[in-house]
Hints:
4 copies of one chain form a homotetramer.
Chain A: H1 18-27, H2 39-51, E1 57-61, H3 64-75, E2 80-85, H4 89-92, H5 97-102, E3 106-110, H6 119-128, E4 136-143, H7 154-167, E5 170-175, H8 178-185, E6 200-203, E7 214-218, H9 227-233, H10 242-253, H11 256-275, E8 282-283, E9 291-295, H12 298-306, E10 319-323, H13 330-345
Parallel strand pairs in A: 2-3, 2-4, 4-5, 5-6
Antiparallel strand pairs in A: 1-7, 6-7, 8-9, 9-10
Helix pairs in contact in A: 1-10, 2-10, 6-7, 8-11, 11-13, 12-13
Amino acid sequence: MTDTSQQFASDNYSGICPEAWEAMAQANQGHQRAYGDDEWTARAADHFRHLFDTDCDVFFAFNGTAANSLALSALCQSYHSVICSETAHVETDECGAPEFFSNGSKLLTAHTEQGKLTPASIREIALKRKDIHYPKPRVVTLTQATEVGTVYRPEEIQAISQTCDELGLNLHMDGARFSNACAFLGCSPAELTWKAGVDVLCFGGTKNGMAVGEAILFFNRDLAEDFDYRCKQAGQLASKMRYLSAPWVGLLQNDAWMRYATHANRCAQLLADLVKDVPGVSLMFPVEANGVFLQMSEPALAALTARGWRFYTFIGAGGARFMCSWDTEEARVRELAAAIREVMAG
Amino acid sequence: MTDTSQQFASDNYSGICPEAWEAMAQANQGHQRAYGDDEWTARAADHFRHLFDTDCDVFFAFNGTAANSLALSALCQSYHSVICSETAHVETDECGAPEFFSNGSKLLTAHTEQGKLTPASIREIALKRKDIHYPKPRVVTLTQATEVGTVYRPEEIQAISQTCDELGLNLHMDGARFSNACAFLGCSPAELTWKAGVDVLCFGGTKNGMAVGEAILFFNRDLAEDFDYRCKQAGQLASKMRYLSAPWVGLLQNDAWMRYATHANRCAQLLADLVKDVPGVSLMFPVEANGVFLQMSEPALAALTARGWRFYTFIGAGGARFMCSWDTEEARVRELAAAIREVMAG
Amino acid sequence: MTDTSQQFASDNYSGICPEAWEAMAQANQGHQRAYGDDEWTARAADHFRHLFDTDCDVFFAFNGTAANSLALSALCQSYHSVICSETAHVETDECGAPEFFSNGSKLLTAHTEQGKLTPASIREIALKRKDIHYPKPRVVTLTQATEVGTVYRPEEIQAISQTCDELGLNLHMDGARFSNACAFLGCSPAELTWKAGVDVLCFGGTKNGMAVGEAILFFNRDLAEDFDYRCKQAGQLASKMRYLSAPWVGLLQNDAWMRYATHANRCAQLLADLVKDVPGVSLMFPVEANGVFLQMSEPALAALTARGWRFYTFIGAGGARFMCSWDTEEARVRELAAAIREVMAG
Amino acid sequence: MTDTSQQFASDNYSGICPEAWEAMAQANQGHQRAYGDDEWTARAADHFRHLFDTDCDVFFAFNGTAANSLALSALCQSYHSVICSETAHVETDECGAPEFFSNGSKLLTAHTEQGKLTPASIREIALKRKDIHYPKPRVVTLTQATEVGTVYRPEEIQAISQTCDELGLNLHMDGARFSNACAFLGCSPAELTWKAGVDVLCFGGTKNGMAVGEAILFFNRDLAEDFDYRCKQAGQLASKMRYLSAPWVGLLQNDAWMRYATHANRCAQLLADLVKDVPGVSLMFPVEANGVFLQMSEPALAALTARGWRFYTFIGAGGARFMCSWDTEEARVRELAAAIREVMAG
């Protein structure tokens, strides 16, 4: 069932974009060396180095669960802890994957402002305990864009990075929607990562037009020592790697990644604009990426569902999340907005 | 580089077969629910249940490393051990993945005959130690077809299964090349698995025309309890699951899986036939699946390499492995055979 | 330094009680079989079975960190979760040990009333999420007596156990101060454990007069399958086991465990009685076991410290914990009370 | 049962020696700070630094299983491997503990000469595979004295250490019977460890007169970073640490450790001397520490057992291990020797 009313449920309900598909088709010619020793993987890695304007180490994992968990486990030991936001995906939606991959590293949740960690909230958690009976903080993980659709500015990341330096913490970025953050800010990928002090970025492709294959970029290359072995042991080394890397070539080579992210963001903005004056509807967070979070009454949400619209509800009663993706149709955004207006009027 | 001389290096150097590709293309329409809650995944699971003629539990993992390691970790605890052959892929080529996923289960290697475990070799290892200072044997894992290209007969599997029952061991089958075994024996998949006492099969697709997406089939469904959580936590739950499952629909629905395996086996047989009378060349193992293992002199192997042919050498001096795959060209087999004849004559 | 002013800092600052010491001395005769195959270990296990009036499985671990972590890991898999109180020792003071031993099981903290979980608070956490992206709740762990010095009544445990049954959860009890709970309630150990539905108890000896050697009692013996292997693999099988088990014989055989717990409780009660009318001092929790938690001003606490008294502060500003142990001297309790009265007057 | 005929079964069947007992008795005065922050632990650590003539980092664990496993896990990551001898205790008798603590590091067994690794055997294993599909060798572990009662000379350790340096491997020593090696060689502890290139030593006390409490000495102090957290998380931090450390003070302060090891060695030598001319009995290994390994016929061993003597048999048919300990009585050695002579004559 390819129900268009599901278009706003999640950005991972979408398919593969034409550029990624075409690259896969090209890659699907004849035999290629396995395990990343192929030309497509080399090309994709080079595209990343060019895009980020630095000689980073590049790896590929099958999905975001693994990419983030492997990266975090490379940044700390089992008796260390990872500071994340209360709403961080690694904390709320990974079924304990970071703890599994790291063999027990504890996640410590810090308060956020509009879904974003701050130097103060990090400091509070990092300094709360200094004794051996509590896992020693060693990593901070940010999600860019955040799980509530907000975006860290370069100076916010820099401030956090500075705090990390003071406290001896590594800085990891979960970039499942990194493209959307770049599109919103108009910043270069470098400005949002290594130039701001990020050690490792997990750059998500799945939510922006790929099937599988998140990229893990180590700007701090010391931390990447033997990371290829880590990937292999953890079941994240693809034999036919070209099918993970070629789509990245497709996405990166002509800026498709940016066009799609911009499109998704614009759709989200459109939706927000269209409903902002609807009585009884309020935006829960500023719309900075591709998600719109609306506070609406339970009956209104039920009515929307009854009309066939699909979306996730979360953060207490009355909230609904609408996600736009690379292939969201503007006409459907307008239909959804109209439906919201109608159920609120009803 | 799509060098045809690499065709015999590994069966995972090959690409995606047309049937799998076409199914992915069809699956790539519009939005679909994520995490396996889509129609393609349901269809693929049903195809497996039909093919195996039983109501088994079906899961998908990204690759064989993970599929086998997750299955094994579901069959034992960390203080248990897994009996495998000395040449088992899980022992020799997974960088400790089974130990990682299980948090420490030890692999105990047993002697083999032509790459195959026997009831006697299993019994020897299982009964060697009965004290608490040695991890308690809990699982036997077979590879079908084996790493040296031989195939377990149904009665061999039954005999092993009986031994497992006597000793309280679960029986796992690594079926990276299960298709090739079926093709060789002309047996039904059921006869080679649950009817012979296999608890869990990891059915490989990657080496038979897919990009990613090994299937894990639990015939003993009690052992599958909460296995979906295990996959998720271990980074093996694809969000866009349809791209792992649809190719299986393509492979299974018109017996493409069997045609391709038969083709690969036939190419291997052809190669063996063409070189068997070449002086100085000898077959190391009977050719029952898609691999040919030749004993040749080091200079001959070097000469072959110098002509551009690619292959792996293993098991002491002089051996070379040539793998055929779903797309191996018969003409190339003949060229390779001719080249072998020439270098041996040279 | 054997500073008596440290007497109230922790109940693990105390030494070995005479009965435990004497039993160790007796055990220290000649050679004995290792790894628990000795007569003292058999005797200790029998004492437990007699004391609890049931044929439970008994194991010994070196400390509470390991005893609780091993027990929890036997009750769930890595992708399951453990419901505990916000103040549970396993959550706040074990440096991620439960996560380490279980290879990633997440602890989910529930609200408490006076340090105690309730059926409602457990239900809230257990039912919050039912999807695969969140670790499935599988265990509830209670601390008896709690970390804030309160004690679960048998009917409270029964109610929790009933909730566990409804929700498919195993029930574990961290009994680091189980003796103190028994002493306070005048209940039999059986009433507070298996008769109330507890599956596994970790019975602490260290805080009641032993050096090392917590006991793990499985009332639900199915859950103890191969637990001896688990202990061995995790570094918790003592070769000279008699030195862990003999002290238990000493503690249990003439009810020394109960006398000491009663003494410690009485000292705590005395302290509470002596300071309850001091202006500016208030009890934070009812004194039911061997701990007294006082709300006092920061300057008062500082003054107390300046006089050489040692104690831990926790739960926000102003709180101080004073622990009594098997060897606390009543005269010292009175001195401490007088000192508190003085600093508050000062 | 304190059966003297068990005296030769294992050196961990023995009790606590007077010096260790007396130190425990002294330590058992009043209250002491917990978790190693006490005076006895400080004193013990200083004794080690003095004995080894270097400023090493000293930790204590409850037993050898944990001490060695924790040390190894500090020297490598889960995707690394540990090279050990075929007969290494960590490989054969720890129920997968090293794999558990390290979350999957594989042990690779190398050939030995009289139970000892050599530069050549290490090199063979370390260089066998250099690809990502095999866990990367990162540590060598030696047992000193070995499991078959032989002893590495300083120059042998130096040669191994040199090989380790060349290959990028850390060097760990399992010193469960380190005392016996020192006694045999007449070398200083320093000569056998850091001066010969050992990074970490696990110095065993249990087999030489203690109850619990193996010491872990990091000569390469960089490798000890946050090792205290590792011990805590893994359930190896004793709250009443003084009972682990005080016995070491007792053993070390007047060279009791050396006297006892010398005694045990001498008893073993005596046994070997007394039976060496018995027809049908042959020494399997040179007697260099406190164990004697005799090749005898099965019926002779059975006859010995029938007379009540206890010992372990291993390494194929006909072998028996007799261990001497700190409290072995010379008279009993003579009785055993006479019994052996009799059963062989019988």
